Every structure is written in C-alpha cells, then in structure tokens.
Amino acid sequence: MFGWNRKKKTASARHILVADLQQCEALKAEIESGADFAEVAKQYSSCPSGQKGGDLGSFRERQMVKEFNEVVFSAELHKVHGPVKTQFGYHLIEITERSE
Q: What's the predicted TM-score (pTM) here?
C-alpha cells in the first residue's frame, strides 16, 4: 500500500573489517578451515565491533553502506561472505538473522 506503512526489513550480522584484500582473503580461509569467526574478529578487525566478536547487532535495511547492505539483505544466512569492499576497507560478513 503506502510506503510509510510498510515495515522495513531487518537483519543481524557480524563482520571483520581489515584494510587490505590479501589479509581479508587469508582470514576467510582461516575461518573456512575451522577458526572461530568471533576470535578472528577480536584479533584482526579494525572496527570497534571486533571486540564483540564482530557483532553488529540488529539493523534496518539501507542503514549500512550500499555494498554491505546488498550482501546482508540478499546472501545466504550463516555463511561467511566476502571480501566485500566498501569505503572503510574489506569486510567478511556473516548474516546471523534476517526478517523477510
């Protein structure tokens, strides 16, 4: 009906942010080989969320930068996606929950 009446989608995700592509790819390989996402985030992420294991909590669609938003609101849940390049650097993203 009217746009103002529609509920925006929400999601929860965690991420790891690093400055360079090679490091991002190496960390993804570590996680895919069994390393704990939260521990890798605590050790390597340059985002303050790294201290919480990369947890970004819940947020609305279009609340994050475009490249990040596109992955979070379209990609498979509970899988590590990336590297995703944004103005902040390179992200590994795991979507933990999403409303449809």
A: 0.91
- CA-atom Rg of the chain in angstroms: 14
Please say whether the beta carbons of 72 and 9 come within 8 A: no
In tens, the pLDDT along 15-70 reads 999 999 999 999 999 999 999 999 999 999 999 999 999 999 999 999 999 999 99
CA distance 29 to 60: 29
| Nearest-angstrom CA–CA distance, 29 and 35 | 9
Which DSSP symbol is given to 95? Answer: E
CA distance 69 to 33: 26
Q: Any idea what DSSP says for residue 1?
A: -
Distance CA 18, CA 72 (A): 18
